[in-house]
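1st attempt posting a full record on here, be nice pls
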Amino acid sequence: MKWLWVLMAAFALTASTADISGTWKGTADTPNGTVERTFVFKVDGQKLTGETTSDRFGKSVIEDGKVDGDNVSFSITVNVGGTEGKVNYKGKVAGDTIEFDAEIQAVGQTIHFVAKRVSAAAG
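the predicted structure (as tokens):
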């Protein structure tokens, strides 16, 4: 009987993870103008993978991605003028919106992205 409770608790934790699989479009206002970024997320349990494309910085692969309840975190590596830099994203899911803070390590700057779901992943 104890194992049944453990299984039910594990299932409840897994079921509570936000399913953000699919395509999202985000914008951020920066001192250099508005930046747009498309996120294509794939969720497997709490593991987040996928890729992201920016109008200014091209395509990046999602690294170290995690979804925990309605919290989302991941890193990407961007190439700016031949120099690679890490950007760490942390966000919160609310329905079809994710609000991210993106920390750009190389310049010590954080920008705020608001992403909206464009489409869900095909089942």
